[in-house]
Amino acid sequence: AGGAWGADVAKIGDTPYETIAQAFTAAQSGDTITLLADVAPVLTSQRAITAASVIDLNGYTMTLAEDDLYWGTTTFKNGNIVVDPSVSASTAVFWMFAGQTLTFDNVKLTATGVSGTYLIGLEGADSNLNVINGSQIIIDNASAVSLTSVIAANGTDDKIVIEDSSANVKNVGTFILFGDTT
Length: 182
Fold this sequence. Notes:
Blueprint: E1 10-12, E2 15-17, H1 20-26, E3 32-35, E4 54-56, E5 61-64, E6 74-83, E7 88-96, E8 101-111, E9 115-122, E10 128-132, E11 136-140, E12 147-153, E13 159-163, E14 166-170, E15 174-178
Parallel strand pairs: 3-4, 4-6, 5-6, 6-8, 7-9, 8-10, 8-11, 9-12, 10-13, 11-14, 12-15
Antiparallel strand pairs: 1-2, 1-3
């Protein structure tokens, strides 16, 4: 990152962190983690990764190399998320549970070569997904059988909002797969 932050890759308020894992651990509900460099988190637990309410990508890229990631209610904004092609989602890369909301706000989400079940899975009552403000979902898989669905809503009363955003999806079984959703 350089400058005043030295080698730090993220900050919460004015507190810098050398690794994204340290920022994830330190974040409390309501906090914003702001990236100061590109990051590729190595996650030791796929549940409750961080309590941060906002992850401001700040124009940088977060590369994810694991699946079944449960973020809680989280807004990603202003940058890029790349899902490593080696990911084979046993359920979903982004996995939301009852009452949780996942928002992509001005985010380019690229997942090329990802296989498995879902890119984004909503499970349980009142799970929500917002893709807003110029966000993009880009998927170009080698075959339609590689990824079952981009978005799967498997609970009751799940809500999906795609507004002022785009999706460029090639070779995926289904774009939005509705299960019990109303």
